[in-house]
Amino acid sequence: MALQSGLGGHLTIDLGALVRNWRALDKVSAGALTGAVIKADAYGTGIVPAAKTLYAAGARFFFTATVDEAIAVRAVLQDAHIFVLNGLYPGAANLYVRQNLMPVLSSTSMLEEWLAKCVERNEAYPAALHFDTGMNRLGFRLNEAAVVAEQIERLGFAPQMIMSHLACADLPNHEKNRTQLALFQSIISRFPGIPASLANSAGVMGGRDYHFQMVRPGVALYGGRAVIGRTNPMAHVVTLHAPILQVKEARTGESVGYGAGITLSRETRLAIVGIGYADGFFRSLSSSTGRKGGAVAIRGHICPVVGRVSMDQIAVDITELGGDLPVPGEGVEILGPTIGVDDVADAAGTIGYEVLTSLKGRYTRSYLGEIES
């Protein structure tokens, strides 16, 4: 791939693939509403174009982590239903009301502040209630359910949704999934008639028992693997190329990169590529003598990273390409159809979520197939 002007990395987001992924998940969750988790800048793809595209595809319920994210979405989607997963920030109820945002209430203090605002304005502003069924992050404790139910019933407040979050859905046979499902069912029995939501991306794929009235896919929308040990059925959304800066010969016995952690065992051709950890190419993708690191693709061929990843550059072994050598300015596939998000994650010892949300580097961005709302 020839990069624009040959001046730097290029990140392409295929919004058509994003739509296909949402529609595929919507089909799987038939009978439940399919929301869209767009936190962390829509997993690195750009929260505004992603939200507009998903809305045009049919999504109406969106989940952000922070208020700032929610406000950015509200500015372009006036009638979307937007939940703030981090809940109600102290003293910020008026902001949520003005922006028509729904906090996901997860503590007694959040609930009391929100209900006080409703009483003050004599209006039942919508919100969700989040119960902790075993993850020990945000959420009401199970033994608070009766008190919460009594409190909202006394004030005539009907939450928009009862929620919880699965801790081990990426491992479908994990016993904790069934335990959390049973606990969640016991919670929602205290709130008859209120819609419920439990399933993340992996939960959507885990079976209809987890779907309830709404599902909340995240990483699968953006092409990431949701379930460990299964072939990923989702279309890849992000493609990242970086330019070759130099092609050079290196001799047997020479070292490559900081720390001289790898010594070449043969005459080697190297391509020096203009990407590094400042661009989200993890330092853990480095290789050393006896340790395999990450890889890139050049003209469809896998080429391993040689030596340590530095801030701005990596070296890759292109010896196996033979005599048809790439040239400076030619693009190297960092992410795409040959090197998937989860291929990079596996090599780096992390997860696809981190790969996607680290796409904040020095790239030119472009979007394919954007759908205007």
From TrEMBL:
Superkingdom of source: Bacteria
UniProt-listed SUPFAM superfamilies: Alanine racemase C-terminal domain-like (SSF50621), PLP-binding barrel (SSF51419)
Catalytic activity: L-alanine = D-alanine
Membrane-spanning ranges: none
Cited InterPro entries: Ala_racemase (IPR000821), Ala_racemase/Decarboxylase_C (IPR009006), Ala_racemase_C (IPR011079), Ala_racemase_N (IPR001608), PLP-binding_barrel (IPR029066)
UniProt modified residues of type N6-(pyridoxal phosphate)lysine: K39
SMART domains named among the record's database cross-references: Ala_racemase_C
Recorded metabolic or biological pathway in which this protein acts: Amino-acid biosynthesis; D-alanine biosynthesis; D-alanine from L-alanine: step 1/1
Annotated ranges, domain Alanine racemase C-terminal: 237-368
Name of the top EC class for this enzyme: isomerase
Protein name: Alanine racemase
Organism: Devosia rhodophyticola
Phylogenetic lineage: Bacteria, Pseudomonadati, Pseudomonadota, Alphaproteobacteria, Hyphomicrobiales
